[in-house]
Amino acid sequence: MKRITIAEAAQHVGETVQIAGWLYNLRRSGKIIFPIVRDGTGIMQCVAIKTELPEPVFESLRRLTQESSLIVTGTVRAEQRAPGGYELDVKDAQIIQRVPESDPYPITPKPHGIDFLLDHRHLWIRSRRQHAILRIRHQVVRSIRNYLDDHGFTLVDTPIFTPAACEGTTTLFEVPYFDEGKVYLTQSGQLYNEATAMAFGKVYCFGPTFRAERSKTRRHLTEFWMVEPEMAYATLEDVKQLAEDLIVSVIRDVLTHRRQELETLERDISKLEAIDKPFPRLTYDEAIEILHRKGSQIVWGDDFGGTDETLLSEEFDRPVMVDRFPAKIKAFYFQPDPEQPDRVLGVDILAPEGYGEIVGGGQRIHDLDLLLKRLDEYGLPREAFDWYIDLRKYGTVPHAGFGLGIERFVAWICGVDHVRETIAFPRMLYRTRP
Ligand code: 4AD
Ligand code: MG
């Protein structure tokens, strides 16, 4: 018997096939029952008629419980009114495991609180909405990789255990490490990207990153995924163009390949269709002006808070780029603006609709003496950065790159409120399980 996935149903109309999945829902109407089966690729309504099935098969289906596993054999029929467009006329069914009534599947169609759902995340990911979000996440990751691979970037993965801080010493997770004493979980692959960019020209790393931030907001995870491209012989402007092009290209791909999932999420698709180049560009000073006009209390020299980011992004229907931040609110590695040395050539990209900063990046210091000075000013030990300093001694060149946070990007694309739903198993201030 031919085994197909629900996603392949269209190619098998009229054929008798097997579908292996789980019971999503069951409607009963006397002598006909409608088991709705999901198999990871889709959801399909099956039609089982009492008079056309052996009694035990019909009975086992009729009494079946939510999320029981089963293999159904039947004939695929096009049915416009059915979700997904196809139905399966059941000829046979094999129950693999029946979920007992005494210990039923905990997530029922009735509403549950968020803590309950997060405690059952290992099961929650089966539900339609969570499934759609994670499928879109997969598409986003795939499109990012395709884009970078097609534009001459080499993937070079960077380490998770690191001896030094990239994004400030206050958000490091320490890990005991044999005789070395301790190492840290990486906050960003950037410093290593700078080394690999000098070896390969254009590179990227893509992996989990860690921040010990005591932030309990809808934009913060302690473990999140970041894609970080880095380019030798490149400037702040190159970074802006790359980020803009990458973001537009990923959104187009999601609109093409994951429209159904966006519809499941009831995403306002027109908002995504409107995303195009060029993105508006502001300086930090211009952004502060807009914020003051909109009633923010922010003082010049402060970093934007979450509310400021929301206020700013409300002004535009596409992502907005803010550059030339005061040096002292940014990390040690930023190249100063030659025209105003107390500003740096860094850029943040804020997503529309209040999703906040999705990209941070810019041009790096390439001058040896300036780098040494900055390490000292930021209280960073030169010994921990010896290899990073070497890059400024052996063929240093202007270079630039950025980091795009996957969960925030996916949250925006999906139109979901909180980044906790955009990763399979979120890690947050008060959550490390399941
Ligand atoms: O702006 P960040 O801190 O930049 C860097 O780490 C640079 N070293 C990247 C580079 O230039 N190669 O972080 C980049 C992005 C943010 O814009 C945001 O999207 C995401 O990472 N991010 C977080 N996402 C979820 N939870 C958190 N706690 C995050 N912190 C940063
Ligand atoms: Mg940032």
Largest sheet: 9 strands, mixed
Q: What is the assigned CATH homologous superfamily of the largest domain?
A: Bira Bifunctional Protein, Domain 2
Bound molecules: 4-amino-1,4-dioxobutan-2-aminium adenosine-5'-monophosphate, magnesium ion
Averaged pLDDT, please?
97
Tell me the span between the first and last alpha carbons: 38 Å
The CATH top-level class label of the largest domain: Alpha Beta
List low-pLDDT spans: none
CATH architecture of the largest domain: 2-Layer Sandwich
User: Level of helix content?
Assistant: 25-40%
Structurally, the number of domains stands at 2
Tell me what you see in this structure.
The chain is of the alpha+beta class. It has two domains: 6-97, Nucleic acid-binding proteins (OB fold (Dihydrolipoamide Acetyltransferase, E2P)); 121-422, BirA Bifunctional Protein, domain 2, CATH 3.30.930.10. It is built from 13 helices and 18 strands. The chain has helices spanning 55-62, 114-119, 121-124, 128-150, 190-200, 236-257, 259-264, 269-273, 284-293, 306-313, 368-377, 386-390, 406-414; strands at 2-3, 16-29, 32-38, 43-49, 69-78, 86-97, 154-155, 161-162, 174-177, 181-185, 202-210, 223-232, 281-283, 320-326, 336-337, 340-351, 356-363, 399-405. The longest helix is centred in the first third of the chain and has 23 residues, at 128-150. Magnesium ion binds next to β17.
